[in-house]
Design goal:
This protein has 8 helices and 7 strands. It is α/β, with parallel strands linked by helices and about 200 residues long. The chain has a single domain, classed as Rossmann fold (3-Layer(aba) Sandwich). A 5-stranded parallel sheet has the order 3-2-1-4-5. Bound molecules: zinc ion.
């Protein structure tokens, strides 16, 4: 039996450690229940962390493993981290069909993912920065990920919401708090030994 972990998140999400922490916890839960973890995500193309430019998935896959984890995007990062645990953990990407459904494609895709069911939903949310957003005077989460998390919650799937820590002021001026740099959890340590490429995650 499988244990489906639905991951959703903003395209600009840049903290793989936060995703790793939450994924590891859910994967551990799956093992505890003697179920096989499946990481379900929307296969949104990653972004260049500096320019924000979209990088085609197939192109990003050819980058060295360390460089892959430097790219932005919750779907992308969750996929890369889950694939480090293949074949014990599998991934199930659901790319949106933008050509067929236009702007509604992402929402349709979210509905499909939720309808297939999940044991848990992990949502990695950044503030909406869409220049044409009608609600921009009020801070809110980016739309696609917020939509998916809300659908999951409505379907009775437990949702864990993650947002970046607020920017703190220091003597040296404004700075964002450092990313989590904790060690990789022990989870899956034995399984990582039989990873295909043998590379170490950062
Ligand atoms: Zn908005």
């Amino acid at each position: 039996m499988t244990y489906r972990i639905l991951v959703t998140g903003s395209r600009g999400w840049r903290d793989p450690a936060a995703i790793r922490m939450d994924l590891d916890a859910e994967i551990q839960r799956a093992w505890d229940l003697a179920r096989r973890p499946v990481v379900v995500h929307g296969a949104c193309n990653p972004r260049d962390p500096v320019t924000g430019q979209m990088i085609p998935w197939a192109h990003a896959e050819r980058l060295p493993p360390a460089a892959q984890l430097e790219l932005a995007g919750a779907d992308w990062l969750a996929d890369r981290l889950a694939r480090q645990l293949e074949p014990a953990v599998t991934t199930e990407p659901h790319a949106a069909d933008w050509g067929r459904f236009g702007r509604a494609a992402g929402y349709r895709r979210n509905a499909t993912m939720v309808a297939r069911g999940a044991a848990a939903c992990l949502a990695f949310l950044l503030p909406c920065t869409a220049p044409d957003c009608p609600g921009r005077d009020r801070p809110h989460d980016s739309h696609g990920a917020a939509h998916c998390a809300a659908l999951a919650a409505r379907a009775g799937i437990p949702v864990r919401h993650r947002r970046p820590a607020p920017v703190k002021e220091s003597r040296h001026g404004l700075h964002a708090p450092g990313r989590h740099r904790g060690t990789i959890s022990d989870l899956g340590a034995s399984r990582r030994a039989d990873r295909r490429d043998g590379s170490r995650p950062r």
